[in-house]
Amino acid sequence: MDDRVAVVVITHQRRGELVQALDRLLALPEKPRVVVVDNGSTDGTADAVRTRFPQVELVASPENLGAVGRNVGVALLDTPYVAFCDDDTWWEPGSLTAAADVLDAHPRLAVVTARILVEPAGTEDPIVAELRDSPVRGAGWLPGPALGSFLAGASVLRRDAFLEVGGFSERLWLGGEEELMAGDLAATGWELCYLPELTVHHQASRARDPHRRRRDGIRNTLWTTWLRRPLRPALRRTLHLLRTVPRDLVTARGLLAAIGGIPWVLRERRVLPPHAEARFAALEHAQRTSTARRYVS
């Protein structure tokens, strides 16, 4: 057993897939404490967890909290590290212990992100190459490539750092919510990195709403950009997004939602300090040429 790491899983309307994910998590040699936050499912998810996995701590939310469900799960824990997991992902045996060892050895490291294998083929997710070849410059002591952001469902976080920046934003709900947190972590002196020795498996669920994910992703990208980036970089990213997103109703709804948030974005805007902004600036070329980060549905 490794009592340094607990796992928080958020789920919504995916009972069958969650059951499979929990079977795999509970079979890990680390025997992690597991918290499931059910985001308002109506398909019997909560009852299935109670019946089949009494050792799992369940939070049955009456509403869909999105990524904020992770905040709820973390609040129940006292472990120094928290691994996030989606209901269609699972951690490779030994990865949680490896992550805890690295975080123990580097007290200013807040996030370690794993290699992602797409199942059932077991091939690397296209995003892995971008993580491996990250252009971000971090501290010299980092055990892997420095990152400007991270993928929550494939990362282990230092709980104290997560709480220091307030967890995931309620306003962003879900969809690219990690970028805002990553900027705030960097602003307060925390580091993020990719660790290829960690592995997460992902078998993408068919129970998803791709149009909503695209709409919210466009909205959240614009909100995060204008909340934290200086004027010129914010304009560049906005113009690039407007040039490259599909010209359809889904995009229009995302843009309208972003415009609706202008008053609170301006009110809460806090530009990143230069050392943190440099991380996002380093990613601009990769974001423009990426084949793994496109707003399509």
From TrEMBL:
The keyword Glycosyltransferase applies. Keywords: Glycosyltransferase, Transferase. The keyword Transferase applies. InterPro entries: Glyco_trans_2-like, Nucleotide-diphossugar_trans. Pathway: Cell wall biogenesis; cell wall polysaccharide biosynthesis. Gene3D superfamilies: Spore Coat Polysaccharide Biosynthesis Protein SpsA, Chain A (3.90.550.10). Pfam families: Glycos_transf_2. It comes from the Bacteria. One of its GO terms (molecular function) is glycosyltransferase activity. Residues 7-128 form the Glycosyltransferase 2-like domain. Belongs to the glycosyltransferase 2 family. This is Glycosyltransferase, GT2 family. It comes from Blastococcus haudaquaticus.
